[in-house]
Amino acid sequence: MNRARTAVEGGYVAGVGRILSVDGGASGLVTIHAPGPVYAYAREDYDWWQARLSRKLADGLFGEHLTTEEVDVNGAVIGERWRVGPHLLLEPTFGRIPDLAFQRAMGEPRWAKTFARSLRPGAYLRVLEPGAICAGDPVIVSDRPAHGVTIAVAYQAHLTEPRRRSRVRRVVPPDTGTA
Questions:
Q1: Are 116 and 110 in contact (CB under 8 A)?
Q2: Considering the entire predicted model, what is its pTM?
Q3: 3-state secondary structure of 95
Q4: Percent of the chain scoring above 70 in pLDDT
Q5: In angstroms, rounded to a whole number, what is the distance separating the alpha carbons of residues 1 and 162?
Q6: Distances from the Cα of 110 to the Cαs of 64, 99, 100, 113, 116, in angstroms?
Q7: Interior angle at CA 173, CA 12 and CA 175, nearest 5
Q8: pLDDT above 70 for 109
Q9: What is the DSSP-derived secondary structure letter of residue 70?
């Protein structure tokens, strides 16, 4: 299988990835609609965590609506467009800020800090056009803004780099609760 490189390996390959699972493995069509964000996490990042935690991690464990494959979720440029299946259109807005509920669910001491420091937050996505999707649907990345601020860059600036926050604030949508 020819996989797109991750942000850690360097570079971003735009194009087509796919949905590996929807809502942790729901079968059949699932309709995604506004209001409220959609959370996406990459299978490749789950694999990275599995190696570090020495245990299997199932799709949906992190509470994501979409588990992707061959989509660099953390390398997504804020404001780009993701066409999923024939109708759903999504826009990456920001990464997940882990909380104590997530830590309890994982059963790992200091999980919130460990997850945050990994810079693999996954992405919250705004629903621009609702639509029904299912596992196996393609994710086509398009309309990438020129500002180049990715989910990972914005996340790192928010957590550890106050000097870069003003640049990030200019591109992160105001309703993400991160500015």
A1: no
A2: 0.80
A3: coil
A4: 73
A5: 40
A6: 21, 10, 9, 6, 10
A7: 135
A8: yes
A9: S
